[in-house]
């Protein structure tokens, strides 16, 4: 019987207690009350409660969805009134045979992996260190969380200000270290820069989620491991990490859905350049739609993105309901 | 409370400090600097005169001035207009989403029907739908409906992500209160609406506030929708900020001032609900301390 198995059982037992850290209650819980009294003309009370929101959301999500699908099979004309001219699979064939588009997908995946990788390592490290603090945590945590509330477009503009080759604070620092080029003007450093801007903004979220997970790690197991002579690293790797794994999975899924939405920072810094080095999928969609007004083609990209989101959302919901049944 | 129980044995085991403690402290200081320096630099920049804000050797000490803020709120291109647009669009979208989300979330939490899973899935995938994929058809629909460059159009656009978010997260908050309380209220003769209003609602006050704050932050910080849908009559602060850049020569003093105006209120309201932040931002998948 290994230590991490014990830890697993302990967290499982603890997360059943309401208010403790762990996978919490979700809307797909089977615990919903079966009785639904107060029927009024066939529609239940809960039905009435949901109807305004569902009706509005229906309008706001189904009309655009139908429109998006129609657009993907059409040539869209905006001049002289809106016109959709059916062109069959034209846009789809163009999209699937466009090498540039596939490069953008690869870039998007590369961007996602590098941002999330750095965010996970840094976020977990910050959470572990903060969790050890006995004093000053209440003061430090809010400071660490600040970037999450900053509008991404402002993050991008601030990044430009910090990296400006003539007066930027960070550019100045980098020049001192021997990096003389314009950071946002060079393909590699521009990619690194926009990655780090996302890292700056969202590492706090990973730290916050990990911190919630760490409060669910059973201290007596850690103590027992110390008595057995395990060092800090071993304890982290064998006890702490396995027990926060489910929570980290949630964090990864949330961030991966956000990664497909990512647009603001790149739009205001590099706008895809230099030499397409940062032209991830959403940036390409905006360019196709609102610069070249190739709206049908952009719609195909939109549907691809939507399909990916739905796949990740499935995993997310699956993860939640799996936790419920445990 | 659970954090204290962990802290005690951990503290004992690291009493000796040693190299591990020093590394941890150094890391924390670096992480803090990495996090805070850009924001401090922005705040300082907004109080710098034209010479200091773009001085080739960065200036930490300078003669502070209100000039940038004064310039922003005077003259023909007054920022107050954009500030108004931002407030109306963000507050409007947050209030509508929170009200409908509270009703809908309660309905979703307290019901059990066959399509519930599908409905939940629809909410979450709508919330997570890429803005680029939504704004594209919305642009055409809004053109047709005359909603381009209007504040109601902007509010509707923000509701595409705020409304599913509010319904989903409020449902998670309602799920967290034991149904037994409501059951006994009903036994005592309350109608279902009274049970909701007098029993369930007060118990989720914190959840409602968190939902409203997060909806406000999401809408206020939007750039991707506004850059397509807004125009001279509905331009919001983030758009106004980026427009300062595209004009020839950037006034970084004004830009850092706008940045401060955009960032400051959201950090204040965001930190006010930080206890429930983790629940809100993980869509109810993780509950905090």
TrEMBL record, chain B:
<protein>
    <submittedName>
        <fullName>ABC transporter permease</fullName>
    </submittedName>
</protein>
<feature type="transmembrane region" description="Helical">
    <location>
        <begin position="121"/>
        <end position="142"/>
    </location>
</feature>
<keyword id="KW-0813">Transport</keyword>
<feature type="transmembrane region" description="Helical">
    <location>
        <begin position="87"/>
        <end position="109"/>
    </location>
</feature>
<feature type="transmembrane region" description="Helical">
    <location>
        <begin position="195"/>
        <end position="220"/>
    </location>
</feature>
<feature type="transmembrane region" description="Helical">
    <location>
        <begin position="154"/>
        <end position="174"/>
    </location>
</feature>
<feature type="transmembrane region" description="Helical">
    <location>
        <begin position="21"/>
        <end position="44"/>
    </location>
</feature>
<dbReference type="InterPro" id="IPR050901">
    <property type="entry name" value="BP-dep_ABC_trans_perm"/>
</dbReference>
<dbReference type="InterPro" id="IPR035906">
    <property type="entry name" value="MetI-like_sf"/>
</dbReference>
<keyword id="KW-1003">Cell membrane</keyword>
<keyword id="KW-0472">Membrane</keyword>
<keyword id="KW-0762">Sugar transport</keyword>
<dbReference type="Pfam" id="PF00528">
    <property type="entry name" value="BPD_transp_1"/>
</dbReference>
<comment type="similarity">
    <text>Belongs to the binding-protein-dependent transport system permease family. MalFG subfamily.</text>
</comment>
<feature type="domain" description="ABC transmembrane type-1">
    <location>
        <begin position="83"/>
        <end position="273"/>
    </location>
</feature>
<keyword id="KW-0812">Transmembrane</keyword>
<feature type="transmembrane region" description="Helical">
    <location>
        <begin position="252"/>
        <end position="273"/>
    </location>
</feature>
<keyword id="KW-1133">Transmembrane helix</keyword>
<dbReference type="InterPro" id="IPR000515">
    <property type="entry name" value="MetI-like"/>
</dbReference>
């Amino acid at each position: 019987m290994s230590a991490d198995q014990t830890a697993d059982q302990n967290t499982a037992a603890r997360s059943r207690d309401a208010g403790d850290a762990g996978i919490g209650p979700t809307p797909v819980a089977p615990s919903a009350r079966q009785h639904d009294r107060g029927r009024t003309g066939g529609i239940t009370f809960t039905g009435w409660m949901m109807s305004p929101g569902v009706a509005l959301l229906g309008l706001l999500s189904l009309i655009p969805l139908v429109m998006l699908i129609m657009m993907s099979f059409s040539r869209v004309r905006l001049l002289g009134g809106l016109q959709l001219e059916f062109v069959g699979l034209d846009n789809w064939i163009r999209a699937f045979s466009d090498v540039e588009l596939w490069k953008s997908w690869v870039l998007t995946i590369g961007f996602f992996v590098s941002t999330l990788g750095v965010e996970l390592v840094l976020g977990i490290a910050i959470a572990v260190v903060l969790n050890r603090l006995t004093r000053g945590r209440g003061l430090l945590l809010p400071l660490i969380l600040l970037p999450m509330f900053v509008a991404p477009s402002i993050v991008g503009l601030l990044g430009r200000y910090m990296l400006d080759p003539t007066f930027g604070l960070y550019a100045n620092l980098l020049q001192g270290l021997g990096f003389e080029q314009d950071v946002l003007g060079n393909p590699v450093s521009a990619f690194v820069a926009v990655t780090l801007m996302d890292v700056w903004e969202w590492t706090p979220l990973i730290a916050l989620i990990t911190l919630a997970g760490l409060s669910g790690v059973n201290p007596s197991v850690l103590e027992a491991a110390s008595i057995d002579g395990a060092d800090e690293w071993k304890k982290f790797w064998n006890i702490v990490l396995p027990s926060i794994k489910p929570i980290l999975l949630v964090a990864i899924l949330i961030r991966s859905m956000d990664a497909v939405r990512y647009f603001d920072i790149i739009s205001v810094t590099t706008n895809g350049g230099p030499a397409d080095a940062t032209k991830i999928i959403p940036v390409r969609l905006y360019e196709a739609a609102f610069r070249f007004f190739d709206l049908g083609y952009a719609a195909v990209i939109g549907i691809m993105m939507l399909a990916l989101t739905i796949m990740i959302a499935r995993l997310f919901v699956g993860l939640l309901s799996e936790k419920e049944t445990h | 409370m659970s954090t204290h129980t962990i802290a005690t044995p951990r503290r004992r085991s690291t009493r000796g400090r040693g190299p591990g403690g020093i590394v941890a402290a150094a890391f924390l200081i670096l992480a803090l600097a990495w996090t805070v320096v850009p924001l401090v630099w922005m705040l300082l920049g907004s109080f710098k005169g034209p010479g200091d804000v773009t001085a080739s050797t960065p200036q930490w000490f300078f003669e502070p001035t209100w000039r940038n803020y004064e310039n922003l709120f005077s003259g023909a291109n007054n920022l107050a207009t954009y500030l108004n647009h931002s407030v109306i669009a963000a507050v409007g979208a947050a209030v509508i989403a929170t009200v409908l989300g509270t009703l809908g979330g309660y309905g979703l939490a307290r019901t059990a029907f066959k399509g519930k899973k599908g409905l939940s899935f629809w909410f979450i995938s709508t919330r997570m739908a890429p803005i680029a994929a939504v704004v594209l058809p919305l642009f055409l629909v809004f053109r047709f409906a005359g909603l381009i460059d209007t504040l109601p159009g902007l509010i509707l656009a923000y509701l595409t992500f705020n409304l599913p978010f509010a319904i989903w997260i409020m449902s998670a908050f309602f799920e967290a209160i034991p149904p037994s309380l409501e059951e006994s209220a009903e036994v005592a003769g309350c109608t279902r609406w009274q049970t909701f209003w007098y029993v369930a609602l007060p118990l989720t006050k914190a959840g409602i506030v968190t939902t409203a704050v997060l909806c406000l932050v999401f809408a206020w910080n939007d750039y991707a929708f506004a850059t397509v849908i807004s125009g001279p009559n509905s331009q919001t602060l983030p758009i106004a900020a980026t427009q300062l850049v595209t004009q020839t020569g950037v006034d970084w003093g004004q830009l850092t001032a706008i940045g401060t105006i955009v960032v400051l209120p959201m950090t204040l309201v965001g930190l006010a609900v930080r206890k429930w932040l983790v629940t809100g931002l993980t869509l109810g998948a993780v509950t905090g301390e």
